[in-house]
Structures are given as structure tokens and as C-alpha cells.
Prior knowledge:
Number of strands: 17
Largest sheet: 9 strands, mixed
Strand content: 15-25%
Shape: globular
Structural class: alpha+beta
Order of helices and strands: HEEHEHEEHEEEEHEEHEEEHEEEH
Amino acid sequence: MIRMDYGADVFYHELAEVSLEGWDRWNAEWPRPLYHEDQFLVLSAGPMSPGGFEYESHRVLTERGYEPERIDGSELARRCPAWNALEYADGYLSPRGGWAESGAVVTQLLELCAEAGVQTRPTACTAFLTDDTRILGVQTAEGDILADEVVVCAGAWTPALVPWLGPTLKTIAQPVLHFGVEDPDDFRGPRFPPFAADIAGTGWYGFPALDDGRVKLGHHGHGYEVNADEKGRVEVDHIAHARAFLAKALPSLAEAPVVGSRVCLYCDSLDGDLLIDRDPDREGLVVAAGGSGHGFKFAPVIGEIVADVVEGRSNPWRERFRWRTGGKSGREEARLQNGRDP
């Protein structure tokens, strides 16, 4: 999901704003657009009120010159008929948002790296090469690789590679379901934009139908801790939990067949912020992790931040992502209230 909606957190709103400029640039430069600006529907179970995620997101968007369209229950019923408008009395439609084809984006970036002369080695990193204070490279299944700098950008596998960050970073599994629909056009376009349904309170978000008719429903909640190599699993209880949500919110999907399921692995940080910095105790090591389930939308700017850390340049975004091993526990505002999935 590509969105600027971050409650009262203007920092992430501005970072997403710059990222969207990057998505626009990539759409213009790449063989085909991989970011789809289908807008972003943000729904509230009750009237939006100060302090709530939906209200504060709408306020920040408005104050910063955007024009999110307020949508009440009657307007929701008229424009997005798949929704049970009785469940959502308030909300808004943000024109600057949508979704990206994440797998295709990674493939395109890898191709660009290859064109730039970057060498890739599809092998597992098993350990660091080190003396007492400095990281000298990595051990792999195919032999040692010496390096002036080692940058760990391993997502959910980061806690396994840098276990001393265990109190700060954890691998969290979040369930994802795909439902099959008979008429995908009913779940596309302006009638069914990407959505967050009272997300701070419930965790539910979803996407328009793909070309093969699948509708993706995700849960941006507390999840459960796993080892990254375990991959996790979607429990039967979660499917029942999802169908209960659909029965209330999107009744026509309530009995749709589940045609796919998996878990989305987060690298959760203690405070919900990314961590992009040098390890102060191990010279030659930079860690870039802690996406906490909301990092991919920043793909057009994250690389520049990492590169500036490696090369010692200033960057306006890096201060919030400084090295930390403790501090106050917290979450991105879209996850502040929602409870643990059954």
C-alpha cells in the first residue's frame, strides 16, 4: 500500500510525499507503471474525532495542501456499493495514494543494479567475518567475502543475523488472505479503491482485485513472533476472524472462497521506526531494518538514506532512524489500538 496517511506523524507523511515523487518518476522511466494511483479509502467506524488515526491523517493531509474527500455513510453506499455503509459513518478518500506491484518492483530494481555493475550472489550469509571490533566481511555457503563495509538489509531475517539487536528488532508474522471473486470488475476502479477499514482499531486493510480475480485482505495488527526461516502460517482461527469482518463490512465477500494464504513477515522495531545506522560497537557494519510493516512505500528514498549513512553524508531523514537498543515501546499510528489477532 502506498499512502501518506500517518495520523499526526508529519515526519512519515513528508517521507511518503517525497517517496511518491519517486514512484511517479519510476512509472515514467520504467517499461510499465508498477505504482497504481487508485486512491486510498480510509474508513472510520464512528465519526472521526481529534486524536484518532483517521481524523489526524485527514487533518495533516488538508493542512499540507491536499484535498482528501470526506465520505459519510450515504456517500460510501453510493460510490462504493460493496461496502456496508451502516458500519462506517465517516471517512475520506485520499487522491494521492494507491498500491504497488512489490514483486515486480524488486525485480526491476535488481535489473537496474545489474546494469549498474552490481554483482549479486544468491547464497546464504551464515556469519560475519570479524576481529574483536571490526566486521571484515561475511561467511557464506560458497565461501568468505571480504568487504570494506557490510550493510545488512535483510528485512525479517535481520534479528537472526544481528542477534544483539534482539531487544530492538523482532520478526513478526501478519496473516494475508486472498479471496476469489466471480466478477473482479465489482472490486476494481473507483468502486473499490485500496482501503483501510478502521485500521487503528481493527487492523484490516485490502486491495482491488488482481487480474486473476483475487482480492487481497491483510491484517496490520500485533501479529505473532516467529523465526524468519519458519515462515509462519495462517491459522484457521484467522480465516474465521476475517470472514466475521467481511460479513459486517463487505458482505458479498463473506462466503468467497479462500484461494491463497500466507504470512507477511515484518521486521518490527521496538518503537515502530526504521533503524538505518552504523553499529557503534562494530566498525564496518551498517544495519538498515525495522520496516515494521510500513517500509516498502518508501522504496524510492530508502536506498539514498542507506547510502548516505555508509558514505558519511548528511541526510534530512536519518536522525529519526538512528541506532538505538532501548527506549520507549510504540507503534506506527495505524497500529496503535488494534488488538492481537486470534
